[in-house]
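Incident log, structure service

09:12 report received: a user says their structure output differs between two submissions of the same chain.
09:20 pulled the input from the user's history:
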Amino acid sequence: MDQDIVTLRKEIDELDNLIVDTISKRVQLAKRTIQRKKELGLSVYDAEREESIIKRLQLRVDASLKDKIAVIYECIMLGKN
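09:34 re-ran on a clean worker, output below:
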């Protein structure tokens, strides 16, 4: 196989590992946030917060990725419960 492809795939694999590690850390922080909200008697679900997260992140990507970012983050945020 072409060495450039091998090198590029290795970089992609490293980024994939970083993404998974980062998502796992985010989920753990979200769980801690949920626990704290419960301790304080606050509502766990905050639609405005989730919408603001998605909008903020969509500003960081090209137009072609905006819908994909929304789908990805909706899935990630569903996993925090």
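09:41 both user submissions now match this output. Likely a transient worker issue. Closing.
09:42 reviewer note: The mean pLDDT is 95. Residues 3-78 form a domain with the Chorismate Mutase Domain, subunit A fold (CATH 1.20.59.10).
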